[in-house]
Amino acid sequence: MSRGVQHHDCGHRGRRQLLDDEAACKRVRSKLFAMIRDVQALAPRFDDVNAIMTELASEGRETQASLHETYSAIQQLNQAAQDLKHAMTRFKVN
Fold first, then answer.
1. What is the rounded CA–CA span in Å between residue 73 and residue 71?
2. What angle do CA 42, 43, 47 make, to 5 degrees?
């Protein structure tokens, strides 16, 4: 008789373990779904960041081109100043 009680008790513990495992699986699944939802909610923000960074890169290229033009103009002005200085040495002031 005690063997039958043990077997019944063992079966009860086995079912309880299955229920506990099932509850744990449901909790894990619920947490995973929440994590997936949160990550999916971030996607539009990454799209916005990507668009802004693309715009900044374009503006950076434009700034670089403008700086190159400015540097070239400064070099031309420096050359013109040197030419003018050289030309002024030919004139004698009384």
1. 5
2. 120
Query: How much is the pLDDT for 5?
Result: 45
Q: Where are the domains of the chain?
A: 1-94
| Verdict on whether the full-model pTM lies above 0.70 | no
Cβ density class 12-32: b for 16+ within 10 Å, e for less:
eeeeeeeeeeeeeeeeeeeee
Q: What is the rounded distance in angstroms from the CA atom of residue 51 to the CA atom of residue 44?
A: 11
What separation in angstroms does the CA of 9 have from each of 1, 22, 52, 77?
Answer: 12, 20, 65, 99
Alpha helix (H) ranges present in the chain? 2-88
